[in-house]
Design goal:
- The complex is a heterodimer of chains A (465) and B (501).
- With 465 residues, chain A is of the alpha+beta class.
- Chain A is built from twelve helices and 16 strands.
- A six-stranded antiparallel sheet of chain A has the order 12-11-10-13-14-15.
- Chain A is globular.
- Chain A starts with 19 loop residues before the first helix and ends with a strand.
- Chain B has 501 residues and is mainly α.
- Chain B is built from 28 helices and two strands.
- In chain B, strand 1 and strand 2 form a beta hairpin.
- Chain B is extended and about 125 Å long.
- The chains are: A alpha+beta (465), B mainly alpha (501).
- At the A-B interface, helix 5, helix 8, helix 11, strand 10 and strand 11 of A face helix 1, helix 3, helix 7 and helix 28 of B.
Chain lengths: 465, 501
């Protein structure tokens, strides 16, 4: 998912009853969870209070002035005056832990001004955003459109000079032969990937890194490297032929480059679809411990459509919406344009449905057809969802596979997740949902076909590999 | 990918570009080639087209056979059970003693671990050998099934279901630990049958298994065992020879025991002085060639603390049954220990006795633990561990403060085997002072003491754990804060385990 923009999640809490486990699940890492639990006792807190919208407290730190910690209960968003870059910080977690314990000191408190100001600014921001999404009418539409067109033309120009360089580099590799690819070429490749970021085409940088990774492994993944370089070349040519592409294909190209449409534009002009969206599975991953990517896969009950909510957050920012695996939410989604619209965002609040829904699995043959069609529609698609019926995880000579009636699907190896899935299956077939990347499947959730209430979800966080 | 295509990519694309392909893909590639351009660029484009074609036609390899599924565990802990969360943290973070307790608690309610916790639990068993027996039971069919796929979890794989119809399956097909347990159970109700089972397989067993299975015979050792044990003195493995010799020495009428006392008796003699009789001891003057056949090592280790003669004496003493000493000299163990100090061979005697003493030699252990027996001070924890818990507790101060002052808190924990707890009464006495203890300067400053208190939290009787939170002070050190947090976590988990929902 090429985009590296910081996004806002959907606003609004979903009426979750706060428990200790849920609070600890918000922790960015184990160290924060531990430190937070260590601060969740009375004597550390000079001031504690809460009302319907927020909880706050003053926590004694090493300095003279206590840290002011506050939580917007609607979205469980934390803010703290401490210098920590973690989010939520240990103070925020400790405050939530005390709150989850229903500590008596939270009762009947009067909201201090610093809490009121922050809440007000949050509400204002949210209101503005909604307005922008619905009204999206600039003061002078013509001038604004002209400015946008000019900006876009400038970016295309930079991208095109980047792809020209990339095309030359790829051609050089094939001219010299990948058999001669060595450390010097890998170094050049790294520099070329950085050049793509400078050319405002971060998606190309990322794809080139993936091709270099495949080259680095040697003969075993040569074919993959060739294919990846070939797909990059198709993007290069797409960029030079962009004016002749259909709008949907142009949108495919833009997301492959890492230049997705603005959220506001998508919210205003994207295809809208109101449905009851079942959360199939989700994953948060990070390549560098700073930028986190969250993917939530949805399935619409009436429409049968799949949707992907893709968010990014830097270390200092939390995910706003809380979507629970296996739960359905009534929401109106706006889809990003493309030949196969998959990525979407929620416009307005998502309402949690109390009804449990069955698992919308497909038999393996139909499922293979569906992902084939998805990649046929857009070869640059990073991931497509797979919903398999009767799939049995197996490990044989350190290879992880999912056995289905259509054949064996290779799995993306992530040790902790793979072993827990195998333990969950006990050798019996499961309904499995996962992300197909064109070569391998990463399972995100599963359930027992006999008793669908028995569910498995992949561990929440993972490395970007 | 077509081999000709792959080869070009590897050796380099020159002027003579060829883009082989069959059917629709071949036609597509022909169009790419016809499009013209620099050959390497055309080749890259063709690679992209091939890639897009492959992505659009997902091909899977044929499904191989799937392994037999695990037998169902009808007693797996349901996901709604209140123990799930504490079990998850216990297996993810430890400590080991709580992992042990978790397994025993599950066994007590007749449940096995839920599938979600199995990988973490099997990893815990990989790290700790002591945990394996209870863990393999707690893992259930599903856990033992899962273990076969991971080399690190081998210890739990291939364990025969204890409730298997055929009882002997455990002996014939089980893993070593299971075979030991099975043989021990048999030995408990039929001494001879257990010995015969072992004798029947003895020649096929590797040394490690011989050693562990031989130890089973210690239980209910009797004269009839001699016929089996005596030939084992010639075993290929030195460890096995020594173990057999130890057992034989405890059968008074055995040839081996008689040989030993035959060597020792002339060395321990009663001398008549002017006023009273007194016992004297001499070390052997030279090595006896017959020793080797009795698992006595005549060559002293190069850097050992004992001289050559002292070593020979010690080798005899460490085998001869302790009962021989009291009956031969008429002295009590305390008297013997005091007497040893007056002889020239004190170190040889004390080292030998220490090596010989076993949990059954109660009066010897008590004598070694007595204040007067300074030589055994360093072994307190190990000696105490040989006593049953109620006997052991009599040797410790009754308050935490006194335990800490005497530096005994670690020894107290070290003497408790995993799964062993202090008595409810003693636990209550200790825990009565826990709040004051946490507030003491000692806990603020002593890192090791804080570690010992956490161990203690795992071994006191759960009913004694404080139900009121430990008082926190705003000026507490981070180390103490962490310790209090960990203490309360352990206490909360143990209370949960003590009261099954």
């Amino acid at each position: 998912m090429g985009s590296r923009r910081g996004d806002e999640g959907i606003p609004g809490g979903m009426g979750i009853e706060l428990t200790k486990e849920q609070v600890l699940a918000l922790a960015p890492d184990d160290a924060s969870a531990k430190a937070g639990a260590g601060l969740a006792f009375d004597a550390k807190w000079g001031l504690l209070g809460a009302d319907d919208d927020a909880a706050w407290g003053e926590c004694k730190g090493s300095g003279a002035k206590p840290y002011q910690t506050q939580v917007d209960l609607a979205g469980l968003a934390c803010r703290c005056s401490c210098p920590s870059r973690k989010f939520p910080c240990k103070h925020g977690l400790a405050l939530l832990l005390l709150f989850a314990q229903k500590h008596p000191r939270f009762a009947n408190a009067e909201r201090p001004p610093w809490v009121g100001e922050w809440l007000a600014s949050r509400r204002e921001k949210a209101a503005k955003k909604e307005q922008a999404a619905t009204v999206a009418a600039p003061a002078d539409p013509e001038a604004a459109a002209q400015a946008t067109a000019k900006r876009e033309a400038a970016r295309w120009k930079r991208i095109e000079s980047g792809t020209a360089d990339l095309q030359r580099w790829i051609a050089d590799q094939f001219r010299n032969g990948l058999g001669r690819f060595g450390a010097a070429q890998a170094k050049e490749g790294k520099a070329m990937a950085a050049r793509m970021v400078d050319a405002q085409a971060p998606g190309l940088g990322q794809r080139l890194e993936e091709a270099l990774d495949a080259m680095g492994v040697g003969a075993a993944r040569h074919e993959e490297a060739i294919e990846r370089l070939g797909l990059l070349q198709l993007i290069n040519e797409g960029v030079s032929r962009r004016e002749r592409l259909a709008p949907a294909r142009l949108a495919d190209l833009r997301s492959a480059i890492g230049w997705p449409h603005e959220k506001e534009t998508v919210a205003a002009t994207g295809e809208k679809l109101a449905d009851e969206w079942l959360v199939l599975g989700q994953r948060i991953e990070t390549a560098d411990e700073r930028l986190f990517e969250r993917r939530i896969w949805l399935h619409g009950r009436q429409s049968g459509r799949h949707a992907l909510l893709l968010d990014f957050a830097f270390g200092g920012k939390a995910w706003e919406g809380h979507w629970e695996d296996g739960v359905a939410y009534a929401a109106r989604l706006a889809f990003y344009p493309g030949t196969l619209p998959l990525r979407a965002l929620a416009t307005g609040p998502a309402t949690r449905s109390t009804e449990r829904r069955g698992w919308p699995s497909l038999d393996a043959h139909a499922c293979v057809d569906r992902v084939s069609e998805a990649f046929a529609a857009n070869p640059w698609l990073p991931l497509a969802p797979m919903l398999l019926r009767n799939a049995t995880p197996v490990v044989a000579s350190e290879r992880w596979l999912l056995h289905t009636e259509a054949g064996a699907i290779p799995l993306r190896h992530d040790a902790a997740s793979a072993w827990s899935l195998l333990a969950f299956s006990g050798g019996r077939p499961l309904h499995v949902m996962g992300e197909w990347d064109g070569r391998r499947l990463r399972p995100l959730s599963a359930c027992d076909p006999v008793d669908e209430a028995q569910r498995w979800s992949t561990p929440r966080h993972g490395a970007g590999a | 990918m077509n081999p000709a295509f792959l080869r070009q990519a590897l050796v380099g694309v020159d002027g003579n570009l060829s883009l082989p392909g069959d059917g629709g893909v071949g036609e597509l590639l022909a169009r790419v080639a016809a499009g013209g351009g620099e050959p390497p660029v055309v080749f890259a484009r063709a690679a992209g087209v091939l890639s897009a074609c492959r992505l659009a036609a997902v091909a899977l390899e044929a499904a191989a056979a799937t392994p037999e599924p695990a037998l169902a565990d009808s007693n797996a802990l349901p996901s709604t059970h209140g123990w799930n969360a504490p079990l998850a943290t216990v297996f993810a973070e430890g400590p080991l003693r709580l992992q042990h307790e978790a397994c025993l608690r599950l066994a007590a309610i007749g449940a096995v671990l839920p599938a979600a916790l199995l990988p973490a639990a099997l990893d815990a068993g990989k790290r700790s050998v002591a945990l394996r027996d209870p863990l393999v039971a707690a893992a259930g069919h599903r856990g033992r099934w899962l273990a076969q796929f991971h080399p690190d979890w081998d210890y739990a794989a291939g364990v025969v279901d204890p409730s298997a119809d055929s009882e002997t399956a455990q002996w014939e097909q089980g893993q070593l630990a299971q075979r030991v347990a099975w043989l021990r159970a048999l030995r408990a109700h039929d001494h001879a049958a257990a010995r015969e089972r072992l004798a029947a397989q003895w020649k096929e067993l590797p040394a490690k298994e011989r050693l562990e299975l031989l130890a089973v015979l210690e239980q209910g050792l009797q004269a009839e065992d001699e016929a089996f044990l005596d030939p084992v003195l010639k075993d290929r493995s030195r460890d096995v020879r020594v173990a057999a010799a130890r057992l034989l020495a405890r059968i008074p009428q055995s040839a081996h025991a008689r040989r030993l006392t035959g060597w020792l008796e002339p060395l321990v003699v009663l001398k008549r002085g002017l006023l009273r009789k007194s016992w004297r001891i001499e070390a052997p003057a030279q090595a006896d060639p017959a020793w080797t056949a009795s698992a006595i090592e005549p060559t002293r280790p190069q850097h050992g603390p004992l001289g050559e003669r002292a070593w020979w004496l010690c080798e005899l003493v460490r085998q001869v049954s302790l009962d021989w000493w009291t009956s031969h000299t008429g002295m009590t163990p305390s008297e013997l220990i005091a007497w040893a100090a007056t002889t020239d061979w004190k170190d040889a005697l004390l080292t030998g006795w220490r090596a010989r003493v076993e949990p059954g030699d109660r009066t010897w252990i008590e004598a070694m633990l007595a204040d007067s027996a300074k030589a055994f001070r360093g072994d307190r924890a190990e000696l105490l561990a040989m006593l049953p818990v109620p006997e052991r507790e009599k040797h410790w101060p009754r308050t935490l403060e006194a335990l800490a002052k005497q530096g005994e808190l670690h020894a107290l924990a070290a003497a408790c085997a995993p799964g062993e707890w202090l008595s409810a009464e003693y636990s209550r006495e200790l825990m009565a002072g826990i709040h004051a203890f946490f507030a003491s300067e000692r806990m603020r400053n002593d890192y090791y003491l804080r570690g010992a208190v956490l161990e203690l939290a795992c071994i006191v009787h759960p009913s004694s754990l404080p139900s009121t939170p430990i008082e926190r002070r705003p000026d507490e050190t981070p180390g103490l804060g962490e310790c209090i947090h960990a203490f309360e976590r352990i206490a909360a988990i143990r209370r949960t385990f003590a009261s099954p929902p």
